[in-house]
Write a structure and sequence with these properties.
The chain has eight helices and seven strands. By secondary structure, the protein is of the alpha/beta class. The longest helix is centred in the first third of the chain and has 18 residues. The protein has a single domain, classed as 3-Layer(aba) Sandwich (Rossmann fold), CATH 3.40.50.
Length: 207
């Protein structure tokens, strides 16, 4: 049902985001995201953007040498206008990507549509390199977010402590956050573990 809705919405998605209310919220969110990106390192290595949609936030990652845009809706991916982006249709809970690839992962405006975050976070950890940054957003359970149900989406609004705990459990260390009207933007970093060190060393020896 959710997938069908996104295919339908893809035809008028950009129009909706230009309306005064959504446009104001989106500009607020972009300012907050830029502040966090100034603290992250993503000028080297591969960057993965999960839930890219039509690519409205890809320009924030313009300094990255290579970006892979992943979304489960092919109709959305076809609407991306940014050049030089590798588009992949796939599920965030079962990423069609090899392990230990990315130095930076972004998940912007997506988690509120995910009923179960744990498999998604586990997959992000699997494809991330030791020390990788994760920029991920959360929609807190406030009145404005509850009103978004009128758009036809079933939202999963999580409390901050639950959200951070789920990421900590997969080895992501909380670094910083910003807050806009209906969204909280969080920066995490994957803490290198012994397993990660062994995996990275094995990769170097095998190359």
């Amino acid at each position: 049902m959710i997938r069908s809705w996104w295919h339908i919405q893809s035809a008028f998605y950009r129009f909706l985001r230009r309306l005064p209310g959504p446009a104001f919220c989106l500009e607020q969110e972009r300012r907050c995201l830029r502040n966090l990106l100034d603290q992250a390192e993503f000028k080297e290595g591969l960057v993965l953007d999960i839930g890219t949609g039509s690519g409205s936030t890809l320009n924030l990652l313009a300094k990255a040498p290579q970006i892979i845009a992943l979304d489960r809706c092919e109709a959305m991916l076809r609407r991306i206008r940014v050049q030089g982006i590798l588009r992949i249709a796939g599920d965030a809970g079962a990423l069609p990507l090899a392990a230990n690839l990315f130095s930076f992962v972004s998940v912007i405006g997506v988690t509120e549509y995910m009923p179960d975050l744990q498999p998604v976070i586990a997959e992000i950890r699997r494809v991330s390199r030791p020390g990788a940054f994760l920029l991920i957003t959360r929609s807190p359970p406030c009145l404005l977010n509850r009103l978004r149900i009128v758009l036809g989406h079933r939202l999963f609004l999580r409390k901050k402590e639950v959200f951070i705990s789920a990421l900590n459990a997969c080895g992501f260390e909380y670094r910083e956050q910003t807050r806009s009207l209906i969204q909280e933007q969080c920066l995490f970093r994957l803490t290198p573990s012994h397993d990660d060190s062994d995996r990275s060393r094995s990769g170097r020896e095998g190359s």
